[in-house]
């Protein structure tokens, strides 16, 4: 997929236009994007639909909700963010350049996926182990 690190003074919707344009160029098959309230403006959703052919679905917190509410799709993003924070370098903002911060996040995901792809799966090993003949 793709990621974009921006300074704190950049609006989410402005950064999302850049990110969605890059994402669409690399993965034109993506036609649906889930977003939180920071991207909830009608103008942004209309722009994404007409310019890129991407539908933006905003996951909003219920108006009558109090306290913590588990939002659909949102937990996936938060879980992914917590995985990258396991990489010590991503726990603090040490980088002077945004491209370096992006590279460290990508490196954390590469490490995570490499470990997942190369770990031994015990269920598969048990299923593929040949049975010995009973004498």
From TrEMBL:
Alphabetized InterPro entries for the sequence: Transposase_11
Superkingdom: Bacteria
Positions of the Transposase IS4-like domain: 2-110
GO molecular function (one): DNA binding
GO terms, biological process: DNA transposition
Record PANTHER family: PHP DOMAIN PROTEIN, TRANSPOSASE
Protein name: Transposase IS4-like domain-containing protein
Taxonomic lineage of the native organism: Bacteria, Bacillati, Actinomycetota, Actinomycetes, Kitasatosporales
């Amino acid at each position: 997929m793709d990621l974009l690190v921006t300074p704190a003074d950049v609006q989410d919707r402005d950064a999302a236009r850049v990110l969605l344009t890059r994402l669409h160029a690399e993965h034109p098959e993506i036609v649906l994007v889930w977003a939180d309230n920071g991207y909830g403006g009608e103008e942004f959703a209309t722009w994404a639909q007409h310019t890129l052919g991407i539908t933006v679905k905003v996951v909003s917190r219920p108006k009558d909700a109090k306290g913590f509410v588990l939002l659909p799709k949102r937990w996936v993003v938060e879980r992914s963010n917590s995985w990258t924070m396991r990489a010590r370098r991503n726990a603090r903002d040490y980088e002077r350049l945004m491209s370096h911060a992006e590279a460290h996040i990508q490196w954390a995901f590469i490490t995570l996926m490499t470990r997942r792809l190369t770990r031994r799966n015990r269920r598969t090993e048990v299923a593929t182990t040949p049975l010995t003949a009973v004498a």
